[in-house]
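Collaborator request, handled under Task 6.
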Amino acid sequence: GDFPILRMESIRVGEQAADKWEAIRMAGDLLVKGGYVNMEYVDAMAERETITTTYLGMGIAIPHGTAKAKSEVLHTGISVVQFPDGVAFGEERAQLVIGIAGIGDEHLELLARVSEALEDERVLNGLKTTTDPGYILQILGGE
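Structure tokens returned to the collaborator:
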């Protein structure tokens, strides 16, 4: 539709968070502000993390809500928060925390898009270190 998957205002670079819970909330708040989800979805993102970590590997975490929070999703989309120093997710550190909200199975499409971008190590390092939100928009927005 004409509701973009990723918008400039849903991207933050050079951020810091005390812990993964703060990082997840930051990603969730951006989804709320962007009109992608209701506030309740952010709580469901935290709830999901208690069940199973959303840390993917390679410095990436992809927090998203529980299955029952699907009704809180208004539009399919993502938010991106970059933490150059990383945020601890268990033993690992995430430099990129990508909040994901999908209507129906559309989150799978989002995951495929994100995974594809991350296969290129140079691009991945760029996403983790860039000071330009426009670069992240170009790579992950894929408009």
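The cover message to the collaborator said: "The mean pLDDT is 93. Helices lie at 20-33, 39-51, 106-118, 121-129, 133-141. Please let us know whether this matches your experimental observations."
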